[in-house]
Amino acid sequence: MKLILTLFFTTAFAGSVYAQANQPPALLSIKDADLKRDIFELAGDAFRGRRAGTADEMRAAVWVAQKAQEAGLKPAGEDGTYFQFFNINRTRTANRGTFVINGQPLALWKQVFPTQALDTHLDGAVTWLSTAADTATDLQGKIVAMKIVAPKPLPAAGMSLWGFRYTSSAIRQQSALLARRGALAVILVADETVESAIAFTGHNYEEGSYQLEGAIRGNGGSRQRTAPVILVRSAFEAVLKTAGARVKADFQAETFQYPSVNVVAKAPGTDPKLKEEYVLYSGHHDHDGDGNPVEGDSIWNGADDNASVTVGMLAIARAWTTKPGKRSALFVWHGAEERGLLGSKWFVAHPTVPKQAIAAVLNGDMIGRNSVDSAALLGTTSHKNSSALVGLAMTANQQVTKFKVDFSWDDARHPEGWYFRSDHAPYAQAGIPAIFFTSLLHPDYHTPKDEPARINIAKLAKMTKWMYATGWLISQAAAKPALDNPGP
After folding, report:
1. Which helix (H) or strand (E) holds 57?
2. Closest CA relative to residue 462, chosen from 414, 404, 411
3. What is the mean pLDDT of the chain?
4. Would you say 325 and 270 are in contact if contact means Cβ atoms under 8 Å apart?
5. Could you tell me if 233 and 191 are in contact, meaning their C-beta atoms sit under 8 angstroms apart?
6. Are the beta carbons of 469 and 27 closer than 8 angstroms?
7. Contact 395/338 with Cβ under 8 angstroms?
8. Full-model pTM
9. Looking at domain 95-251, which of 3.40.1190.20, 3.40.50.720, 3.30.70.270, 3.50.30.30 is its CATH number?
10. How far, in Å, CA of 250 to CA of 151, rounded?
11. Are 258 and 87 in contact (CB under 8 A)?
12. What is the average per-residue pLDDT within 234-242?
């Protein structure tokens, strides 16, 4: 018994000494005032929502690079700069498009929404379908119109962007059925649910689709011959039902190539050998830009999504340069995340450091809202690729932040599919240990109400400290976190 107690206390003491020896030394460098100043600046209206492929995203990237330099980080992008540029292809419906019902023109992107970027030329009578039973008839070569029918199954209750998911599923299901019946074109009339989500949904149709340069374009950006699908506001149901109703439509697809950019910086490590390896901090600096107004506000600021992590990483940079770790720290602020994780996909394919030198990826997305005592960590259960990395994150939480950690969103059966919606995913799929820090969703997600004034600065600071403390433990460990499996 005496031996057992001696072993217990010896082990406990050794663990305590290890924990104390590896306590992150610069926590006091992460200051509420710095976080508040930076997020009000970056997520303010002056940057107009930082939409990928716009001058606003470029201005935000320059702002991040300047702040990174001020924090003491060294450039780690391409050609000795803080930047890694890449091209994205955008395919959209041109704004000169017209749509007329019985001689009445509808306002594009306000009353009528082409749901695909297709060259479309229509001039003919409308066949109104009152019920699903009408779709069983031969619709070959006809312009058909119909009220939106709720999709089956409905999106899971409480899902984010529920109205958008409802709209997308309904349009996909109905248009596929009508196209199989031979419809030349499909006009779908919004129901109450679709109307409630029209600001976000319409803005997405207006913006079109984005892909990395050279990527194979999906149907959303293809000019292949297919039945065009056009959404109209509910106010036009009656006129489409009128006997002899006619429509004329003229839409053109156009493709642009835009630059986007990752901001990449580093803080060199202190160990002669370990400094060749990197703890990679990951976030994204873009958001949704200037879109359809909601309650008079057209700027989708993206304060939590994801200015919160952008400024959190700057705070970590200040801490790291105050007291560098043994391993180096690499900071990657990705561009074009909201357009499909494009910046992180590009960096994984074209890393500015050797890919095998990346010890682990600590990604954050939305860390400034909800209870100050709770947080979520993904890459921990269904999608775990490194038990050692998860263990270090939980040790850091125990030492520093003591969050009640929610692991449920990492379940492969979770309806949100949250794990695959942020920038750690391309790294994990490339076989690099990766985890995802988040404080989860809230009602302002992807709305103009995601503004700096709604950020809980104390929560933002606490999440930032958790990410910093986890990275510090990785930087000091003798070995990189082991990989359990090659990727989810």
Report:
1. helix 55-70
2. 404
3. 93
4. yes
5. no
6. yes
7. no
8. 0.91
9. 3.50.30.30
10. 29
11. yes
12. 97
The string of DSSP codes covering 412-450 is: TT-TT-GGGGSTHHHHHHTT--EEEEE----TTTTSTT-
DSSP string, 340-391: TSHHHHHHHHS-SS-GGGEEEEEEE---SSS-TTEEEEESSSTT-S-HHHHH
Helix (H) or strand (E) holding 19: helix 2-21
- Give the tens place of pLDDT for each residue, 137-182: 889 999 999 999 999 999 999 999 999 999 999 999 999 999 999 9
C-alpha span between 401 and 171 (Å, rounded): 45
- The pLDDT score that the predictor gives to residue 213 is 85
- Domains of the chain, by residue range, sit at 24-88+257-476, 95-251
Asked whether 234 and 189 are in contact (CB, 8 A), the reply is yes
The residue with tokens 């929560």 is 459
Two structure tokens written together for 403: 């969050």
What is the predicted pLDDT for the residue at 214? Answer: 78
Interval 224-253 mean pLDDT: 93
Residue whose entry in the numeric block shows the structure tokens 């890459």: 379
* CB neighbours of residue 11 within 10 Å: 10
List C-alpha distances in Å: 265 to 29, 282, 321.
Answer: 19, 11, 12
CB-based contact 435:289 (threshold 8 Å): no
pLDDT tens digits for range 353-377: 999 999 999 999 999 999 999 999 9
Question: Which tokens belong to 335?
Answer: 């561009």
Structure tokens at 64: 């991040």
- β-pairing, 253-267 vs 83-93, is antiparallel
Contact assessment for residue 148 and residue 163, using Cβ atoms and an 8 Å cutoff: no
Is there a shared CATH topology between the 24-88+257-476 domain and the 95-251 domain?
no
- Provide CATH code, domain 24-88+257-476: 3.40.630.10
